[in-house]
Amino acid sequence: MSRLRLIVLAVAGVGVLLLILAVLIGWQGLKVNSSLQEAVDDAATLQASLQGEDKDQIDADLAALQESSGEAAERTQGRIWSLATILPVIGDDAHGVKVASSVISDLSNDGLEPLARTATQLDAVLPQDGRIDPAVIESLHDPISRGAGALAEAASTLEAEDSSGYVERFRTKFRELQQQIGDAADATDAAAVALEVLPALLGQNEPKNYLLVFQNNAEIRATGGLPGVVSVVSTDDGDITLGRQESVGGFGERATPVLPLTKDEKKVFSDKLGTFFQDANFTPDWPRAAELMRARWQELYPEQIDGVLTVDTVAMSYLLEAIGPIEVGGYTINADNAVDILLHQVYLDIADSAGQDALFQEVASTVFDRISGGEVAEPRTLLRALVRAGDEGRAYVHLADDDEQALLLGRRITGATHDADGHASAIDVTLLDGTGSKMSYFLRSQVRGTTTGCMDGRMQVEVNARLVSDAPEDAASLPDYITGGGGYGVEPGKQLIAVGLFTPSGGEITQLRIQDKKYDGDSDTLGDREVSTAFVLLEPGKPQDVSWTLNILPTDVAVPLRVTPGIFPDNASSTVARGC
Q1: Which of 70, 211, 220, 401 could cross-link 308 (Cys pair, CB 3.0–4.6 Å)?
Q2: What top-level branch of life does the organism fall under (predicted)?
Q3: Is the pTM of this model over 0.90?
Q4: Is the domain of 227 the same as that of 299?
Q5: Calpha distance 356→398 (Å, rounded)
């Protein structure tokens, strides 16, 4: 047989082999795709059943998901699929399918199983007849913690994969899976931590007292709004009661700060940070604000305070989604109208501050009584409301016990601007009313950050804030309590906003612009952060743009961009893409 014939036969043989392999891989791919689609359908069915109370149905749906995801994973473990992962064109995608199938299968067995087993018990974390049983909370911690660990491992595995080489359709699905598993890992980790710290908070070992501070977004402050009603919540072996309620107007002004302030704090925030209870949240750092509030309370009242919690008015509207409408002071307040009534209509209807304070106190106590009494139509809606408020920076918790607080470190619910080592990783943009009014009800803001490049090993970042007053043209005719009456030199109908930017640790602000014109502003340092403040006067309907140029240290992850939340029910905060 001639050499040429041998070559032709060899090439033909290879071609036939490749054709056979292509058919086998295609057939295997069809079977994997079928199993994966079944797994997707089974996951949706399980998600729906987890909303109910039928334990047998949950078990059946979990078993179905374990079977379908297990089949998909098994079919990507053999030699044929392994060969597919090294072939040109399809290799990256085959590898991605293998990873996704394996992750889903592992999760359905190691992560979802302990979580599903506790799904019908989650209502135990909510009060009934003014009590939450600490022992039941402890029993939930272990399975939730195991589920959180499995989800964290899955999220890490998916995050390590580079999906840029996948075909577009699969790349989109893979990135959706990364996002969904990552979000679930974060939420479950937060739940595990909450279950770990809750027994102590509930006074399992000793009675506890907490300040509950309601922030009023109509007069904006760095952490959300002016502290209004302050209540004492007491716990004792799971029993929860609402005690003393006070308005911040009764705290008055101290001659000196209630706690020593640093030189930087005095420069950036002034002595008012420590002399006025209601100005303690000039700082965006909730632990520092809480520390000052706690010290001032304990100076005036007998309760020793074990922590300071806060929610704003928008968070209150989320709670009303779960408990339903309340009848207070002649108003029917529900999730849809709470913001409008409590941040604006009240000031139109009630002229004196004492009457306003009385209404706010009644609202606070009514909502508390409904929740603590177990008057919640859909318990999971209440849990979702609390999670949403925390995610949006509308609810914070600071605990005086260092060991308890350490369990919460690194989580948004602390409202902390620094980690345990004193490092600030986020860019903070704060909004502060300078009108002495309730005009922030009309304030609309949008803040975005962009990485523009690298220079000398540092990230170049642009942060842009657009502010506009949505007040009516005749806003000057509104009551003085809303407009401020010109008391701080601001013409009625307008509002003055101090817009502050705090860099991450080691960051530098190189330029500040308003309406695209360079502006000196106020520039200071706060520890190892630079701070720049622009004072913006807003007239109804006329936007103002503020922009900063920053140089910050490079990072391997996206940089959090935290923004003071306003009255809109959304998350004003975002991230800036990593660079360098």
Answers
A1: 211
A2: Bacteria
A3: no
A4: yes
A5: 28
